[in-house]
Amino acid sequence: MNLTFIIGFIAAFVLVIYGMVSGGTSVSQVMSSFIDIPSVFITFGGAFSATVMSVPMKDLKDIPKHMKILLKKEKVDINQYIEVIVDLAKEARLKGLLVLEEKIKTMDLKDDFLEYCTMLIVDAIEPSKVRAQIENEIDCIEMRHARAWNVYDKLGSFGPAFGMLGTLIGLINMLANMDTSGGSDALGKGMAVALVTTFYGSVLVNMVCAPVSNRLKAKHEEEMIVKELIMEGVLSIQSGENPKYIKEKLNSYLTYQERQASSENDGSATEKKKGSSKRGRKSQVNNA
Amino acid sequence: MNLTFIIGFIAAFVLVIYGMVSGGTSVSQVMSSFIDIPSVFITFGGAFSATVMSVPMKDLKDIPKHMKILLKKEKVDINQYIEVIVDLAKEARLKGLLVLEEKIKTMDLKDDFLEYCTMLIVDAIEPSKVRAQIENEIDCIEMRHARAWNVYDKLGSFGPAFGMLGTLIGLINMLANMDTSGGSDALGKGMAVALVTTFYGSVLVNMVCAPVSNRLKAKHEEEMIVKELIMEGVLSIQSGENPKYIKEKLNSYLTYQERQASSENDGSATEKKKGSSKRGRKSQVNNA
Amino acid sequence: MNLTFIIGFIAAFVLVIYGMVSGGTSVSQVMSSFIDIPSVFITFGGAFSATVMSVPMKDLKDIPKHMKILLKKEKVDINQYIEVIVDLAKEARLKGLLVLEEKIKTMDLKDDFLEYCTMLIVDAIEPSKVRAQIENEIDCIEMRHARAWNVYDKLGSFGPAFGMLGTLIGLINMLANMDTSGGSDALGKGMAVALVTTFYGSVLVNMVCAPVSNRLKAKHEEEMIVKELIMEGVLSIQSGENPKYIKEKLNSYLTYQERQASSENDGSATEKKKGSSKRGRKSQVNNA
Amino acid sequence: MNLTFIIGFIAAFVLVIYGMVSGGTSVSQVMSSFIDIPSVFITFGGAFSATVMSVPMKDLKDIPKHMKILLKKEKVDINQYIEVIVDLAKEARLKGLLVLEEKIKTMDLKDDFLEYCTMLIVDAIEPSKVRAQIENEIDCIEMRHARAWNVYDKLGSFGPAFGMLGTLIGLINMLANMDTSGGSDALGKGMAVALVTTFYGSVLVNMVCAPVSNRLKAKHEEEMIVKELIMEGVLSIQSGENPKYIKEKLNSYLTYQERQASSENDGSATEKKKGSSKRGRKSQVNNA
Amino acid sequence: MNLTFIIGFIAAFVLVIYGMVSGGTSVSQVMSSFIDIPSVFITFGGAFSATVMSVPMKDLKDIPKHMKILLKKEKVDINQYIEVIVDLAKEARLKGLLVLEEKIKTMDLKDDFLEYCTMLIVDAIEPSKVRAQIENEIDCIEMRHARAWNVYDKLGSFGPAFGMLGTLIGLINMLANMDTSGGSDALGKGMAVALVTTFYGSVLVNMVCAPVSNRLKAKHEEEMIVKELIMEGVLSIQSGENPKYIKEKLNSYLTYQERQASSENDGSATEKKKGSSKRGRKSQVNNA
């Protein structure tokens, strides 16, 4: 479970409700001030309708899938990927590329993209074509991912827009009926109702759409780093590079702390050149 | 028919009208509050006039065409295109490129861009020139499409601008005549009328222009994926690549589910390498 | 004359004035409400002063030239350019590149850029240098054009800014003098005057600057397409390509309808390969 | 002196002050309405403090230098640069590249960048390295220039932000003390004071920061064109191109009028090919 | 210590507090007007919760590290780096690349990135691979740095959003309870409380988030220049270029003043060619 997302979500709602209650006279009164059915329809219904117009049905159907991705604790361990690729590189050096087909199926780490890339080099396709094909695969994934957050960006832009539309409707109705309404108290209540749609629109974008879109983008970026790392690693394996050199190369994808941790996990068993390991440890000590 | 667009459009209008009626005292009163002829002229007329100034006539004349494109149910079946290209590749391998001219005309799938690209390789133009020409064709299509949504983007930015202009006019008139107007009730009515133009502007952008522009862009992106797929496929045919390899290459344009579906449709008849088909099935299981 | 621009401009002004008059009590009263000399100075004067500070004098001096460009009916007929280039290609094939120098001067179509490009190949400069030089020429034109709409973009951003500044000045003066002013009627009038500058700023950007800037950009884009077409055509002539093939290549710059029209104009006289002409006719039938 | 900048600056201030005075009852009253010491501290002080936080000290120290650049009348005469480069090309053709070292020091035109570039070819560095080094030099200049206007962009964005902050502080204080304040007159005065900070923020951005930033960018662009022209010219000299051809090439950086003027200044003395000069004169007659 | 950042921060707070106190009747009254616990929870709590939803936990954990980076006086002396690289180049010319491993460890300047790059050329990896690997390293650093300021950008966009949300809640509560509240004084107090959240949101973005994000970006840019300089220098060393030429090349990263200072520090000891040193001194005299 992606706890931080859920905790953030609950915290935001609790804080806003606390604010609503602390400023009102009683809970029931607050409920009646902030819950207004026509406002719900105009703001949420209107924003959703405009999003349905804007976005292909197919993308809307994926909303449950997006939620699953968001809530899944998908801690990406880049170190593990580097280990795996270095292992594959060692195998390939000893026994040839063909043995990777077997190896990739028996590994602990299940990653379809890694498998896909490895099979390309097993199939002995020429290096430049392998790169082109993996890059195209990554581009296509990127395009599909972008469609995911596009839904929330659109909903998040229509939310406040329909909120304002609702407030305008409320204001016009209130102002046009000023003579028939009962004085300034009724005027205040009318204004309050008019503002509820703006409130809903603001809640929709700031507590749902923007955070979801931001987090999907953040997840996407993490995933893309792994994909790029896999591509570089697999292409290095194909060109028969030294596993130790491959490891150093892929270390660029780690921060200094992660590199150090990785080196320590290696323990004393690996026959590393002193200088090189020290270098790995220290490099980028001052890069965030 | 593109039902989701139409349903979204109707839903948005119904919801907004429901909101208008639910807040007023009577339908006729709501009608009189929200319908104001001079406001219609200022907002819609003004926004349209400014768009006429901004955009070449030619682009405005295409509005009915855009509507037809929007309402057309144009479910793009990428799988079908891959099938067709693989078929063409098989033909070309057996009987040479020239036979494609006949083949392309007798196919079920009618796609002018595919025909255009195929004819280029039938005409035995050299590969780098074919790529350059298809890319130029795609660029030109892209430019023409961009002119389509530009109309709605411009109209959508002038809508609220003229809405605000109208509200300013209303406010200035109202405030300047405060002494001659009949008290706060008249003031309220004046304000209501002034706000109607802002309301119109907001309706224009959020319920018409933005959704239309968004949807045209979404349609364009889908179309561009197909065009790119066709280009890659046709160039692969020209370079005489293995049809099975072409299929794998083009599979990048599919999500995992679509790839799986495509594999199952193939059934047991095709003599596929086990490993390869399984790979196709599983790859990208965790990519949206 | 570019009628749509002028009609749009007049329509926008008529509609706004109609809105002003329809909401007021009398024309003279409306005049006095909306015309305020100090407001004119603050908004238009201020915005123009800030633009003078922002933009080199040279660019401001070109304003009359921009107006001439805007109002000129400059219907670009891409077909005609393609015809001309194909003619030049035929000449060049028969009699060599040198004959183009004569030919270009005796043609109906007078286009300095076409002449410039043709002279480059007549001078027998090597192809890669010709491309580099034409591309540099296009880049320089692009930079100069961008300076044109930059003036209106800047003026259009300072317009509403100085409008708001004027409104702030009006409000502060009004509020500071509340005790000396004569009650709520005077207050209303003060507010009305304060809002006039915001109104002016909004008029400046929405009815002048934004449409002018948009239209200049649209004209620029059309011109760039022609320039690119000329470049591709002239380079094709230099490399001695088949005139028919050049025509097909340049057809990418036309929409389907235009290609069809062009084919029909060719009539039966031209000895075209059936398949090829049909292809030209049908391709892109579903591209806007 | 860059007169237009100074005139624009003075005009904007005079117009705004005229607007302030024309709307008030007396000059002294206007002074007291618009000058409020705490507002000055919050808006200008706050915006400057936030800019100090945002921008390295080094960039702030350059403010006087920026002012000098802004006020310097630095009319760039592109024609003169072309002349000089063509002269250098002629020298180099006759007497070799080494003679340029002497020549460049005795010329009227003093330009360090031109000298820098010329010395690179005098030092007989190979062409591709010369290009790389000049491009790197230009990139570094660009980065340094961007830091200049960044200061004004940041100050210009914090100005209105702190203006609004000040207005919020004023409003909260005023509203919280409504009972102790003396009726609606005092309320009006409180509002007026609150709005003064918004006014200051608007003045800061629209009359100082935005114009300065815009003008620095405009100056930068002009300078970059000259630098690019010098680079192209010097590289052409190194590759031993014909001076006449170099002149034609560099003419791309001129508008049509400037080319014509340049041709006329050449007079009859230069032994130009008729066709070529005419071409130079006419090309781009319709490009702004 | 990065004094300017701290001084700016303190100055901004002092100025805002001065503004708050100067406009109120007494300090205790100001305290009670501007400090409201529920408002704190809604604005800061809400904005932080939404940021927690938007950004991976890992990035939030780095906030103390960002603060340390911000407050660290990290005056980058580009000159020193150039000196060091020129020294390394001289060593390498005399004694070969291998000696650099020892040299780099005994130098005064400790820079992990420089060490990392130097070790790559010591390990005798081929030049094109070295460049690719350093560029990848720089890209990865860039990606990590971008995640740092992304946190503040997100927090800075949610701050005002939740501030407005709080104000809406306050307004709705106030307007809905107009009849039960005690007249216009209570109304004023209610409005004041409602506006406090907007005030908090504005403080959060303008006095914390925006300056922090801006400064992190500025630090990043400075660091990137050094990294690029190191890359160019190390690659020049590997290709065995003349140390003097390397120095001239790297001088592009300095402004004119810095170059001059560097030349003077060299003193008379270095056996420089006259012309070259003079050139170094003068070039770019008119580039900011």
Order of helices and strands of chain A: HHHHHHHHHHHHH
Rg of chain A, rounded, reads: 27 Å
| SS class of chain A | mainly alpha
Compute the average pLDDT of chain A: 84
Biggest pleated sheet of chain A: none
Biggest contact: B-C, 62 and 63 residues
In total, the number of strands of chain A is 0
Spans of chain A with pLDDT under 50 lasting ≥5 residues? Answer: 267-288
Oligomeric state of shown chains: homopentamer
Distance between the termini of chain A: 27 Å
How does the overall form of chain A come out from the CA principal axes?
elongated
Polypeptide structure, described:
Five copies of one chain form a homopentamer. The first copy, chain A, has 13 helices and no strands. The longest helix of chain A has 56 residues, at 183-238. Mean pLDDT of chain A is 84; it is low at 267-288. With 288 residues, the first copy, chain A, is mostly helical. Chain A has helices at 3-23, 27-34, 37-54, 57-61, 63-71, 78-95, 100-106, 112-122, 127-176, 183-238, 243-250, 256-266, 274-282. The interface between B and C is large, with 62 and 63 residues.
